[in-house]
């Protein structure tokens, strides 16, 4: 929508055009574009005076430009909802996997998706069954597989049929399976103890040596020796496991259902993020352990499994290729190669060398066996053993519930679907209650499978993929699972690596992006506890304890906001016209919410704030508040905020997503470098346009959006009637030509040419310095184009600190006076710097004195406008107006409309049937002089000299030639300059017609044209009527109206209220006798007044027609004429009812929209039509300041530009910049002091650049690659040592051993010493730039890994004996050093997966080496 198009901040129209071409911004503004093009083409002429002004040094100018560009708040277009977009079922095409748009439903794609998901789930179900029952209970693994297969089809079928997420795939999950495996172990131990059997003490996941030998437990010789006990043990274990699994499914199902029914899902967010991330990281660690265990810790088997499973996860996560092709190829090509190799070697699966690659044969279990072994044998259920699992069941309820909710939220984040979490949980609850009757494990939605299903089908609306998957799983459950026996060990390990890589990459590595260092270290500690204790419950308890301690030490229950957020208008420092500001306040009151955060924000206090903002948005959506009255922008002021925890960031991320769906934009202010990095890490800020250095910049950006919106609404208003469009066109033309429209509000003040008493000055963006504090010889300025900012201070060039510009005190644009103190002869305040290219009108003291003597009324009106702006400026921050308040410009316009209505009663604007208007009254003397001056200014002969000005300005009767002109007779006024010349003379709101083919006008032709344009011809009847009016008020019969008589005439006949004090100035423009006005001059006065107010008459007529009043309405603040929605729709049938209500609401600023967009009064409609246009890019009249001598311009010529004082140093080629003298500026000092060149960078700073910035020099680049090679070499050494020489790897004090052991030690010492030297140097240079301390450098995660990589080597010298083997584990974190390459920006951009892949490999290798250490 046009009115929601983004506009640039800091009021840069040219920059807006450039940004629109570069960024493809929406919206059409053809007039502004044409004016901008004309402005650019004429930039050299327009800015010819720039070189004659004081300029900022280039360094300060570049710093200011960079600051403005960084602070520019071009917020993206706000999506406006329509009736169609409000539907909850609206879904957009799936992105990723190569699908750029929604694919049509395809049965083939659905079948392919169902088959691929089934094969993946079947493999995982087999792995889950083997996880549930360890080696001691391997004979029941088929039962475990069947239980998981049953879950996949029952829950999968229910979810595929009833879930709102149509691509949802549900089935068993690894988290409940891990807990069920714990149930089985606890129950097996207790049953064995009850039967007086000695349960094997070997761990579930034994090392390679333990796994290599067959475990005899109730099998073989052990079973023969204890046949009765073993038989009873297996029967009880089987029945008890089925009962325990059924109970866990029933309890989880009930928890799911009740949580959804009573909206308890919100409590899931109360669990600390670091604890949840740590638990999922522990699950990933355990999954990898199972993967290695399935391969018997044989490198030949788990290495290829890891090389397939881990890349498979990243292929899926980053949507590489079409999953319908990529996933089957990556899984089944290695499987095919395996079988081709086996049969090519002439072997079969029973061969001795092949059997170690296969699992022991698994016999099928019929689907009814579950009920046969549970309901059919209730006496075999050991309730005592089951009670042992209740503590673990309690933890399972919490963890699985959170995991389920997270998977639903993850699906909502990754797919463009709005998810009703409560409804989905109710579906999961009902389906799990069904699985409880079949003794199946817990099941719910699977995020990975959802993404695969959506990617293969290319649609999120097709349920058939999930249904086919469920039916295939059902067929397997009813039929057989013996095809499992054809899957080698590495295949199931591949699937486990695929499943576990997500936990490690996303929860362990990925969490560091949005967690603080302390919170991320909590994850590491919890994971370390789990690695050492191998007890998931202990790890979770430690995590909860750490979180509680951290909460007590860090957080406090204090409000997170300075004051209760209230929607109200807050203004930026940009000064605008009163009418613009008032309507802007009206929209801001509804669109803007400023939240001032304070202190450290934690999840509990943030919950209240988030709920309040969410309630605002949802209330407006629920009560169907029109979009144009809803909240649009929320500004978070962080000036007194200390920080926020991850849970708060998570809530705010969710709020950001919800706000986006409501069309609300979240902005952050007072954001420094560190806070911005944290907000980006927490994904609260994703674009530069969302952060601002202070609140004023954000408000400025928001105001620019609203101004664009109001411009589009104004286009609707002027489109109601041709008279409105004509009135706007003339107003825009005048605003583009001159800045006096809001200065001379009364025509009596414009009698004369204001251009002859002022000068024009150009200014250069980010460079021109108009004045500095304390100057007394600076004149008054009026901004015509561009923008000028006032700063309290500017950066000091002598300082070594960065040249940072602070936010300005105020920014002034077109129509605002600058240096208003000059009228009181006071010194200047602040620093005035140009923010945009533009032009200024300026009055020197000499010019002001001349104007005050010759045109006192003109000088008085300018001074009045200056004082009025001074008052508006002081009241800028607090605008409390009554409902009947109208700005001064509106009172003047109402006065003009009254006069126009009175003139209409004299039929001054009526057409005459076949009658010509023979009488053209003469122009006033001041207008004649202005017309001649305009001709001289714009003619092809150039401007007159100072000596020629008196004769040009001499008073001549219109059309007479009683004075010789100083211009040659051949002088012509170009046709394209006629309109500008007329406006220069003060003739506005006319479109003169030139003779056909005329290329220019002579002076007499132009005077005649101006005469016709400035005066209205009178018919004989009109002249007689006006003459009679004259006689009626000529009380003394003297044939002339005196001051009192003229005032009565204007008031009574024309509703022109004028005080007698102004009559003298009024008469001076028409007659030399300032106390009398004869009938001829009275007719001229009336004719001129009618021409000036002609467009106001048409405007009034148009308003009467729109209001269907039949005639021009009565004019005044108390006019009862009202515009309603029905009347507006009748006048503009093309408008919708909502658009009409929107127009009325935006115009109802006086009552704050209390009328609800149903009706407005006459004055409100008039305000809507008279809204000033957006700033024009017009140019000042050329050379107008040259005919009167301009002392200000002479001062500018003597002033040297700062940029020309920049010289090149012969020593280092750097520019030597001038200092900024406090007396510099327009009319300031002439001399400048050149500062000495900057000091040479210190050794520490050079070392920092060498180590941290590879782009600083060739040597730094070489050093980067050398260190990269050393990192890779240390990684290869770490991997090869335990494989090639395991007998030396596990030994401590290896340097004491001769031969091979010493070689390995020397290599390790070489790499460690190199890394130590590099680490010490980086710590030494950490604080060289002043942005970071040495302690802060050490505390960074990457640098912690660097430290841990070198510490173990030195610990070997301190710790001797076998205990030192425990510290060997610390060596393995050296692989994490690979993540340091991410710090080099070029390498990180090319390898975004380097960090997570390295973390996954670290965990896998850590498990392998830890197992070898334990076996050793």
Query: What is the SS-derived class?
Result: alpha+beta
Residue-averaged pLDDT:
76
Count of individual beta strands: 22
From the spread of the alpha carbons, the general shape counts as elongated
Distance N terminus to C terminus? 71 Å
Radius of gyration of CA atoms, rounded to a whole number? 42 Å
The total of helices stands at: 53
- Helicity level: 40-55%
Main β sheet profile: 5 strands, mixed
Uncertain regions: pLDDT < 50 for 5+ in a row? 1-52, 76-101, 202-213, 954-964, 1186-1239, 1292-1296, 1361-1390
Strand order of the largest sheet: 3-11-10-13-8
Strand content: 5-15%
Question: What do these coordinates show?
Answer:
The chain is α+β, with helices and mostly antiparallel strands and 1416 residues long. The chain is built from 53 helices and 22 strands. The strands form 8 sheets. It has a 5-stranded mixed β-sheet, with no helix packed on it. A 4-stranded antiparallel β-sheet has the order 7-14-9-12. Helix 5 packs across helix 20 (464-478) and helix 47 (1258-1284) packs antiparallel against helix 49 (1300-1324). The relative contact order is 0.09.
């Amino acid at each position: 929508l046009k009115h929601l198009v983004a506009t640039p901040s800091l009021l840069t129209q040219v920059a807006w055009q450039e940004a629109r071409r570069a960024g493809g911004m929406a919206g059409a503004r053809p007039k502004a574009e044409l004016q901008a093009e004309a402005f650019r083409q004429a930039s050299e002429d327009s800015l010819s005076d720039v070189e004659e002004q004081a300029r900022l040094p280039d360094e300060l100018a570049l710093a200011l430009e960079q600051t403005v560009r960084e602070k520019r708040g071009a917020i993206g277009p706000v999506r406006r909802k329509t009736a169609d977009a409000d539907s909850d079922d609206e879904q957009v095409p799936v992105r990723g996997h190569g699908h750029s748009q929604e694919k049509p439903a395809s049965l083939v794609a659905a079948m392919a998706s169902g088959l691929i998901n089934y094969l993946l789930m079947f493999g995982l179900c087999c792995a889950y069954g083997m996880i549930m029952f360890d080696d001691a209970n391997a004979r029941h693994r088929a039962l475990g597989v069947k239980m998981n297969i049953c879950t996949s089809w029952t829950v999968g079928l229910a979810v595929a049929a009833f879930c709102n997420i149509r691509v949802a795939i549900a089935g068993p999950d690894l988290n409940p399976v891990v807990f069920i495996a714990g149930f089985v172990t606890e129950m097996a131990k207790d049953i064995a103890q009850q039967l007086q059997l000695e349960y094997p003490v070997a761990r579930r996941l034994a090392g390679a040596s333990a796994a290599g030998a067959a475990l005899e437990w109730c099998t073989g010789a052990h079973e023969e020796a204890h046949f009765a006990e073993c038989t009873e043990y297996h029967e009880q274990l089987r029945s008890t496991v089925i009962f325990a699994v059924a109970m866990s499914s029933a309890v989880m199902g009930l928890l799911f259902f009740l949580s959804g029914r009573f909206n308890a899902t919100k409590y899931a967010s109360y669990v600390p993020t670091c604890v949840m991330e740590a638990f999922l990281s522990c699950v990933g660690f355990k999954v990898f352990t199972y993967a290695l265990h399935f391969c018997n810790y044989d490198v030949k088997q788990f290495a290829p499994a890891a090389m397939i499973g881990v890349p498979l996860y990243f292929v899926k996560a980053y949507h590489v290729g079409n999953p319908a092709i990529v996933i089957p190829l990556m899984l089944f090509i290695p499987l095919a190669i395996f079988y081709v190799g086996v049969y090519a070697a002439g072997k079969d699966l029973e061969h001795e060398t092949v059997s170690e690659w296969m699992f022991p044969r698994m016999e099928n279990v019929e689907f009814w066996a579950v009920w046969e072994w549970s309901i059919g044998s209730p006496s075999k259920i050991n309730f005592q053993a089951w009670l042992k699992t209740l503590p673990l069941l309690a933890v399972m309820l919490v963890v699985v519930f959170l995991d389920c909710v997270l998977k639903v939220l993850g699906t909502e984040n990754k797919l463009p679907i709005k998810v009703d979490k409560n409804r989905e949980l109710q579906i999961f609850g009902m389906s799990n209650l069904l699985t409880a009757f079949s003794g199946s494990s817990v099941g719910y939605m699977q995020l990975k499978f959802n993404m695969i299903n959506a990617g293969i089908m290319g649609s999120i609306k097709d349920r058939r993929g999930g249904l086919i998957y469920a039916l295939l799983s059902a067929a397997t459950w009813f039929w057989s699972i013996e095809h499992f026996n054809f899957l080698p060990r590495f295949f199931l390990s591949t699937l486990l690596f695929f499943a576990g890589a997500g936990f490690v990459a996303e929860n362990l590595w990925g969490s560091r992006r949005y967690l603080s260092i302390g919170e991320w270290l909590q994850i590491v500690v919890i994971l370390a506890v789990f690695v050492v204790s191998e007890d998931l419950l202990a790890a979770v308890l430690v995590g909860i304890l750490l979180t509680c301690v951290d909460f007590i030490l860090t957080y406090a229950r204090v409000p997170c906001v300075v004051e209760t957020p209230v929607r109200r208008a807050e203004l930026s420092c940009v000064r605008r016209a009163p009418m613009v500001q008032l309507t802007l306040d009206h929209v801001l009151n509804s669109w803007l919410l400023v939240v001032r955060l304070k202190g450290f924000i934690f999840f509990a206090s943030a919950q209240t704030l988030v709920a309040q903002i969410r309630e605002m948005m949802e209330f407006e959506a629920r009560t169907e508040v029109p979009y144009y009255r809803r909240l649009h922008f929320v500004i978070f002021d962080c000036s007194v905020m200390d920080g926020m925890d991850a849970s708060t960031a998570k809530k705010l991320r969710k709020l950001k997503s919800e706000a986006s769906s409501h069309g609300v934009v979240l902005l952050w202010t007072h954001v420094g470098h560190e806070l911005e990095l944290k907000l980006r890490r927490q994904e609260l800020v994703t674009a530069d346009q969302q952060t601002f250095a202070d609140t004023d910049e954000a408000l400025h950006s928001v105001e620019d959006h609203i101004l664009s919106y109001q411009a589009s609404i104004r286009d609707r208003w002027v489109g109601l009637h041709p008279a409105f469009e004509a009135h706007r066109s003339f107003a825009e033309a005048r605003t583009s030509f001159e800045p006096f429209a809001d200065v001379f509000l009364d025509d009596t003040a414009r009698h004369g040419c204001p251009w002859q008493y002022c000068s024009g000055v150009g200014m250069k963006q980010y460079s021109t310095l108009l004045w500095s504090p304390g100057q007394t010889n600076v004149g008054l300025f009026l901004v015509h184009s561009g923008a000028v900012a006032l700063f309290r201070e500017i950066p000091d060039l002598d300082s070594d600190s960065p040249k940072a510009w602070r936010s300005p005190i105020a920014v002034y644009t077109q129509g605002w006076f600058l240096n208003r103190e000059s009228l009181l002869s006071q010194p200047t305040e602040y620093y005035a710097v140009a923010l945009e290219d533009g032009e200024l009108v300026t009055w020197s003291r000499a010019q002001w004195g001349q104007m005050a003597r010759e045109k006192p009324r003109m000088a008085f009106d300018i001074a009045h406008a200056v004082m009025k702006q001074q008052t508006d400026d002081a009241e800028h921050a607090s605008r409390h107006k009554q409902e009947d308040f109208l700005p001064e410009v509106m009172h003047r316009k109402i006065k003009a409309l009254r006069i126009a209505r009175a003139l209409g009663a004299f039929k001054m604007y009526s057409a005459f049937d076949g009658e010509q208007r023979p009488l053209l009254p003469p122009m006033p003397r001041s207008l004649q002089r202005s017309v001649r001056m305009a001709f001289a200014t714009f003619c092809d002969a150039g401007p007159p000299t100072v000596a020629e000005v008196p004769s040009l300005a001499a008073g001549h009767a219109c059309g007479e030639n009683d004075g010789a002109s100083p211009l040659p007779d051949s002088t012509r006024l170009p046709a394209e300059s006629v309109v500008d010349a007329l406006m220069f003379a003060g003739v506005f709101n006319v479109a003169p017609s030139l003779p056909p083919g005329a290329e220019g006008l002579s002076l007499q032709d132009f005077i005649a044209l101006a005469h016709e344009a400035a005066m209205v011809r009178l018919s004989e009847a009109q002249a007689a009527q006006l003459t009679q009016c004259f006689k009626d008020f000529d009380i003394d019969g003297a044939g002339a109206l005196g001051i009192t008589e003229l005032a009565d005439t204007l008031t009574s006949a024309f509703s022109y209220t004028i005080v007698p004090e102004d009559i003298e100035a009024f008469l001076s423009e028409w007659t030399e006798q300032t106390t009398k006005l004869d009938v001829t001059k009275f007719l001229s006065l009336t004719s001129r007044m009618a021409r000036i107010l002609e467009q106001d008459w048409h405007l009034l007529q148009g308003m009467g027609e729109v209001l269907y009043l039949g005639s021009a309405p009565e004019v005044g603040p108390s006019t009862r004429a009202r515009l309603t929605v029905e009347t507006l729709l009748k006048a503009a049938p093309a408008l919708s009812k909502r658009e009409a209500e929107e127009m009325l609401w935006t115009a109802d600023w006086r009552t704050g929209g209390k009328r609800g967009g149903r009706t407005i009064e006459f004055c409100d409609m008039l305000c809507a039509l008279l809204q000033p246009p957006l700033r024009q890019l017009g140019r000042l009249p050329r050379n107008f300041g040259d005919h009167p001598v301009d002392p200000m311009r002479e001062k500018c010529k003597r002033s040297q530009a700062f940029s020309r004082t920049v010289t090149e140093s012969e020593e280092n080629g750097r520019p030597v910049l001038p200092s900024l003298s406090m007396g510099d500026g327009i009319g300031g000092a002439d001399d400048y002091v050149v500062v000495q060149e900057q000091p040479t960078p210190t050794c520490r700073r050079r070392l920092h650049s060498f180590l941290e910035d590879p782009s600083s020099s060739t040597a730094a680049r070489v050093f980067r690659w050398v260190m990269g090679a050393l990192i890779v070499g240390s990684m290869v050494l770490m991997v090869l040592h335990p494989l090639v020489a395991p007998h030396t790897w596990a030994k401590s004090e290896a340097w004491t051993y001769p031969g091979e052991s010493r070689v390995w030690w020397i290599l390790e010492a070489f790499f460690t010493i190199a890394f130590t030297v590099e680490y010490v140097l980086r710590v030494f240079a950490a604080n060289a730039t002043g942005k970071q301390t040495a302690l802060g450098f050490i505390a960074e995660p990457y640098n912690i890994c660097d430290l841990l990589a070198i510490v173990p080597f030195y610990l070997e010298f301190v710790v001797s004996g076998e205990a030192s083997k425990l510290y060997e584990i610390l060596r393995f974190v050296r692989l994490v050093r690979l993540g340091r390459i991410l710090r080099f920006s070029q390498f990180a951009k090319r390898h975004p997966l380097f960090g997570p892949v390295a973390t996954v490999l670290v965990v896998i290798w850590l498990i392998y080496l830890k197992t070898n250490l334990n076996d050793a």
